[in-house]
Amino acid sequence: MPYTLSAENGMTILSPWIDASYAIHHDMRGHTGGAMSFGLGMFHCMSGKQKLNAKSSTESELIGASDYLSHVIQAENFINGQGYYLKENRFYQDNKSTMH
Predict the structure, then answer these.
(1) How much is the mean pLDDT over the chain?
(2) Global confidence as pTM
(3) 31 contact partners, CB below 8 Å, separation of at least 6
(4) Residue at 36 is within a domain
(5) Per-residue pLDDT tens for 56-96?
(6) Is residue 100 in some structural domain?
(7) At 42, which CATH number?
């Protein structure tokens, strides 16, 4: 099966997604997953154990967002270095408490 990537809107809209699970490892640490896309297909994905113990799922989501945000900033800097400039860089996550 072929893997298809496309940059819709001329590489001007970056969409990173992040999600975290609370206390799923034996040492009560959470797990973070993140991905970035320009339209069709993901060009960067990451999954890993969190380095900190969280007190709640909200805090676990915040740790996950903090862990993945550096990848989003690096991607935007690389894209700018190639001569493309983003119109939109919206960071998606699913925990309302963390967003507030």
Answers:
(1) 90
(2) 0.82
(3) 20, 21, 24, 25, 47, 48, 49, 50
(4) yes
(5) 999 999 999 999 999 999 999 998 998 889 999 988 998 88
(6) no
(7) 3.10.20
